[in-house]
Amino acid sequence: ANRGIPVLYADWEFSKKDHRRRFGKLFQPMPKELHYVSCDKPLSEQVERLGGLIREHRCQYIVLDSIAFALEGNASESEQAGVYFRCVRQLKIGSLHIAHTPKSDDDSEKQIFGSVFFQNGARSIWFIERANESPRGTLQFGLFQRKNSIGERLKPQGFKLVFQHDRTLIEKVKVEDVDDLAAKMPLLDRMKRHLKR
Questions:
Q1: How many beta carbons lie within 10 A of that of residue 116, not counting itself?
Q2: Residue 43 and residue 64: Cα distance in Å, rounded?
Q3: Residues with Cβ < 8 Å from 72, sequence gap 6 or more?
Q4: What are residue 139's DSSP bridge partners?
Q5: 157, 126 contact by CB (below 8 A)
Q6: Which of 174, 168, 173, 172 minimizes the C-alpha distance to 189?
Q7: Peptide bond between residue 42 and the one before it cis (omega within 30 degrees of 0)
């Protein structure tokens, strides 16, 4: 949206007011090409409405927040993943799907909440991992790609949110410089890190 590419944000979780407050702290000024829509029915019942908004605003990208709340039935049923992805294909634009993960002690086994077909149907999957410890007023996190169907997995990316009174700044950090995040890097990268030390 900051680059002038119209984006539609389809939200099943919060309210327009909540997101406006969050986005207002991240973006100053607010991107004109970011369009918000609140959704209160399953995606299968929203495709026509979303398609109309996509055409109206000439959107080239959509964010769906989040998968489990956009479903008609139980996320554990494989048919729900099939219905979801068929609906997404009807929108005919690029998309980002936000999903939750079930509680697990083993990070290497993290999955998208629900049927394994949500993992299978995605082309690229990134997990957001929060550092347990961050300096006061900040939150450090890493993005780790666990699946890439169209090429090599991309390297982990590290970021820091800096919370100010009226703004939230995003700064890049090196994943390997934050111990909690470095521990979640692929084994080969962790070995290289220790050998380098």
A1: 12
A2: 9
A3: 42, 44, 45, 80, 83
A4: 161
A5: no
A6: 174
A7: no
Instruction: Give the span between the Cα atoms of 10 and 91, in whole angstroms.
Output: 12
* Nearest Cα residue to 175 out of 152, 149, 154, 150: 154
Tokens 């979640």: give the residue. 184
**In the 3-class helix/strand/coil scheme, how is the chain assigned residue by residue?**
CCCCCCEEEEECCCCHHHHHHHHHHHCCCCCCCEEEEECCCCHHHCHHHHHHHHHHHCCCEEEEECCHHHCCCCCCCHHHHHHHHHHHHHHCCEEEEECCCCCCCCHHHCCCCCCCHHHHHCCEEEEEEECCCCCCCEEEEEEEEEEECCCCCCCCEEEEEEECCCCEEEEEECHHHCHHHHCCCCHHHHHHHHHHC
Place of tokens 């590290």: 158
Residues 79 and 43: beta-carbon distance below 8 Å = no
The predicted pLDDT at position 28 comes to: 85
pTM: 0.89
Average the pLDDT over 97-101 and give the result: 95
pLDDT at 191: 87
Quote the CA–CA distance of 137 and 171 in Å, as a whole number: 13
Residue 165, judged by CB atoms within 10 A of its CB (0-12, 13-18, 19+), counts as exposed
